[in-house]
Amino acid sequence: MKNIWIIANWKSNKNIQEALDWVAKVGPQISKEENLKVIVCPTFSALSEVKKAIQVGNFPMLIGAQNLSSFGIGAYTGEEPAAILKQFADLAILGHSERRKNFHETDEMVAKKVEQALANSIIPLVCVQNEETPVPKDCNTIAYEPIWAISTGLTNTPGAGRADTPEDADKVAGVFKQKYGPQLEIIYGGSVDSSNVEGFITQENIAGVLVGNASLDAEEFLKIVKACEEI
Ligand code: PGA
Question: I need a surface site. Which of 4, 41, 51, 217 has the fewest CB within 10 A?
Fold first, then answer.
């Protein structure tokens, strides 16, 4: 049975109390299924409390960071190194298009972040924007997120802010598998919600979803998880 990753990317949202309220609602409802990987990615400042809440509740969830430093421990003011983040994070979203756009992250920086993550046993989840985005060495999990499909409409192109079709996303995922090998797991992201999630996760080459806006609401996120559990 293939893995199904359901990853909540909260971006710069939720203070600690809001984060804990969400975990208290979502955590007890998730079934313990080996292939279901539910991961919540809060802001850095909420990681510690969210981790504690998940441990205390014994919820079958993992925790992700939304970024990490391309450097190690040392004199890098304002950066969060993987060697410290590993206390909390099982996974890190790397090279998200919002970071590439707003913080000028390059493929080279993303490759360095992947190295840091792997050296610290954090799963790197590299966001690729199209077939041309390189997948760094030894990275086995990627998220295909066409920039125009992100719900906040990062581009001004017509149709921006709407999900890709499951068929198209599957085709792109297939191209990545051909290029990098069958071990690569490809997650789709961009305007996923409870009404369209099933279409994506039932595609042959797609192993889950990265959910931004629709993950902020506990009820809506639970609907997405339930839809995946029923497959
Ligand atoms: P969205 O965001 O679900 O709000 O489109 C996805 C993402 O940016 O990871």
Answer: 217
Angle at which helix 218-229 crosses helix 16-26, to 10 degrees, equals: 30
CB count in 10 Å sphere of residue 130: 11
Strand partners, 128: 144
**Is-above-0.85 flag for pTM?**
yes
- What is the atom index within ligand 1 of the atom nearest the CA of 97? 8
Which domains are seen in the chain, by residue range?
4-229 (3.20.20.70)
Catalytic residue set: 96, 145
Look up residue 154 and give its two tokens: 């990062």
d(CA 189, CA 164): 9
**Residues with beta carbon inside 6 Å of ligand 1?**
9, 145, 150-151, 189-192, 210-214
In the chain, which stretches have pLDDT less than 50? none
